[in-house]
């Protein structure tokens, strides 16, 4: 059998197996035992033909070297490296093809979102596997096919993810989340006229708000070429963004067109829901749960959130009088999980010098939206005397409660119905 005949038979065997699976798919069933046997037999024959073809190829060359072009060895593909791109920028070298392709994808993601990036580099919030989808000029030739993410998702660094919040990417322009307040039914007598029981539709608007952060990175660190250093840099970029989101949402600042509202804003001095910090009791905790229940939000991903100080307070207070059962035990409060993050402010309440924030609510109603990816500017000059490079990060995010109010909703009512914030202190 000639090499050409071997190739022809291999192609026929591949087509036979393909036809078997396509038939099973079309009939919406699994392959039968007989079909499975045929597939296995075809694969066995294919394996034998591969060996025969390789042997025949070597035998046809007197030197024992494969015939030219029969087996092509692919040149190793160049992997994208943010550290290398930063080094190239610092040392005024041209970017690699891999970096150019990745940054082009990043700029494309921003252009779709309606936000214009202005930095040196633009990283997309997408998987490297998506970038190497096999399309020439879009990363096929140069980006390593290791199916890792260029950047860890922002959601991986948010404690809110542990709480089951909604995380939306790829947003375009100002986006709205439709909400529905449910259908109402009533008892009526036999001849009474039925009333319209349809609920009302409304929306919560998300608008891109700029987050900016910066990292000081030593030139010695940038000289590393290990994957660990690369991953650490990525993790710091995303981590700094995540920490700012959490500290803002679990802070006490008023919402505006440039930042989301803080949940502790409702408690802060001078605002419409001013509350002093209190010593927590079981009755207070039950009242918080009742407030959420009264808004028909006692469903979904229910949990308490506080900081380390707040947890210490809850663990030190008896549920009653000498019952031996504390308000918090094993990170559980009244049967609900207690999640601790030091992003939760310790300056809540009318007296902003004291008061650890404690929030109870349905975290599935919290929505975090992100536009585009990460816009990165490399500043090699301002910290040069410290042998450091400043990396400035910009990204666009908004956070709202899906059960908030219609319209802009830029203050305390962003979290009006699904959450019950409280400021707690230990006397």
Structure summary:
With 427 residues, this protein is α+β, with helices and mostly antiparallel strands. The chain contains 10 helices and 12 strands.
Question: Given the helix and strand composition, which structural class is it?
Answer: alpha+beta
Cα shape: extended
User: What's the helix-strand series?
Assistant: HHHHEHHEEEEHHHEHEEEEEE
Distance separating the two termini? 92 Å
The structural domain count equals 2
**How much is the radius of gyration in Å?**
30 Å
Strand content: 15-25%
Biggest sheet overview = 5 strands, mixed
Number of helices: 10
Please tell me the overall pLDDT: 76
Helix content: 25-40%
- Residue stretches low in confidence (pLDDT < 50, at least 5 long) are 62-76, 127-149, 406-412
What is the number of beta strands?
Answer: 12
Describe the structure in your own words.
It is a single chain. The chain is built from ten helices and twelve strands. Residues 62-76, 127-149 and 406-412 have low confidence and may be disordered. It has helices at residues 3-26, 33-59, 82-90, 97-113, 128-131, 159-162, 219-222, 227-249, 282-294, 308-315, and strands at residues 121-123, 166-168, 175-180, 201-206, 209-218, 302-306, 332-333, 336-340, 356-362, 366-379, 388-401, 419-424. Helix 1 (3-26) runs antiparallel to helix 2. The protein folds into two domains: 3-59, no CATH class; 77-427, no CATH class. The strands form three sheets. Strands 1, 2, 5, 10 and 11 form a five-stranded mixed sheet that branches. A five-stranded mixed sheet has the order 7-8-6-9-12. With 427 residues, it is of the alpha+beta class. Strand 10 and strand 11 form a beta hairpin. 31% of the residues lie in helices and 19% in strands.
